[in-house]
Write a structure and sequence with these properties.
Number of helices: 7
Structural class: mainly alpha
Length: 160
């Protein structure tokens, strides 16, 4: 897996928030995200703290608390989530984990991985959360093993 489990969960949770917020400043409770996406509450809380520290999310404690984006989902690129959780090693390091891999001392897959890595970087830099959430809603795609966007967008999602 190229992205860590934490990063994948962070992207899925961010897509969930983008889907239920409808570009409003509503705080989405973490326990609702955890329940709906079938993710560990404690693990998800740590992931969302990383996104908050990176300035992508704001959090609010209390009865109406939760998380929301610090700016519009149209402005948040997938690469920002990846870098906040996994760093930029996906875009800089050897896929075989060999130190010093480069043009002077390449690994067996260096040339092909370099092209693929650059393509992934461009993809993630040019793809916003809103774009993916919108596509998922239009095509009723899923964010968990069982949950489709249609089910996410049904009433009663934000409050417990």
């Amino acid at each position: 897996m190229l992205l860590s489990k934490a990063c994948i969960y962070g992207i899925r949770a961010s897509l969930y928030i983008a889907a239920v917020r409808h570009d409003e400043r509503k705080f989405v409770p973490i326990h609702i995200i955890s329940d709906r996406l079938e993710l560990s509450f404690h693990f998800l809380t740590k992931i969302l703290q990383q996104l908050t520290t990176a300035g992508l999310l704001e959090s609010y404690k209390g009865p109406n608390g939760g998380v929301t984006f610090s700016r519009d989902a149209k402005e948040i690129k997938i690469i920002e989530i990846i870098k906040a959780i996994d760093g930029d090693k996906l875009f800089t390091e050897c896929i075989l984990g060999l130190p010093g891999c480069g043009h002077n001392r390449p690994c067996p897959i260096h040339e092909k991985w370099g092209q693929t890595r650059e393509g992934l970087k461009i993809l993630f830099e040019n793809t916003s959360l809103h774009e993916i959430a919108d596509k998922a809603a239009r095509e009723n795609l899923r964010l968990s093993d069982k949950l489709t966007m249609e089910e996410i967008l049904k009433g009663g999602i934000i409050s417990s």
